[in-house]
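Researcher: Structure prediction, please.
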Amino acid sequence: MQERLQKVLAQAGLGSRRQIEQWISAGRVVVDGKPAELGQKVSGRERISVDGRPVRIVVAGKVLPEVLIYHKPVGEVCSRDDPEGRPTVFEALPRPRQGRWVSVGRLDINTSGLLLFTTDGELANRLMHPSQEIEREYAVRVLGEVDRSLLQRLVDGVELEDGVARFVAVTEAGGGGANRWFHVVIKEGRKREVRRLWESQGVTVSRLTRVRFGPLALERALRQGRWRPLTPNEQKQLYQAAGLKAPAVAGQRSKRTGARKTRGSVRSKRRRRE
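Model: Predicted structure follows.
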C-alpha cells in the first residue's frame, strides 16, 4: 500500500500537510536521493530525509489513530531519550498499534499534569499551533505578595525575552499568606511560559500542574503516572478543537488505565493540596 508523502510525514508528527507541501516545493524533502515531488506516493521502504536528516516513516494503512491522556508526575522528562538517565514520559505508555506516539506539547520536569499523546502527527501539530488558540489551564501555587494590580498586569500582558505574553484568565483558588493557589489560562505553548510570567513580577512558582488542555480536563481518578485512551466523544471534541475531521470510528484500546513499569523505586504518593 502507498500513501501520499505529505500525509505520511504529517502522520509522523513533522508538521501539517500544508507545511510539508511547502517543504516539498522548496526542495527540502528528498526520497531515495532525489528531490520529492508534490503528490508523490511512498510505501514506507524508501529512504526519506528532510533538510538532510533521515526520517523514519510508517505507512499506516487502515489502522485508525489513537489518542491517550497521561497524568505526568514531577521528575519525568518529555524527550524520548534522556542522556542523564532520567525517566521519560514515553516509558509509561503502551506500544501503539501502529506508528509511534507523538506528544502534544511538553511539560517541564518540575511540572505535573495532563499530557496528550497521539499516533496522528497532523492532529498533534494542529493542536500545538498558535493559530488554533487552544486553551491550556494550570493550577499554580505561588510564593510572594500578589495583589490585584499584579494580576491585572499578567492579564494585560508582560514583555518577556521572546515577546509579550499574558494570561487569558486568572482565578484565585485558595491558600493564604505568602502561599496562594491560582488557576491560570494561556493559549500558547511557549517554553516555561507560566513560570516566566509569574517570575517577571517577582513571584516564585512552587508548584505547577496542568489541569486542562482544550476540551479535556484532568480527572481526579487518573492518578499520576497512569494513562487512559480517550472516549470516542472526547476524541471527536479534540479533533474539532484542532479544526480537523475526526475519524469515522475512534481507534479504541480497552477501557482500563495503564501505568509505567517500575524502575527499582517506589513513587511517592501525590500530596494533597493544602
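Model: DSSP finds six helices and 18 strands in the chain.
Researcher: Thanks, that helps.
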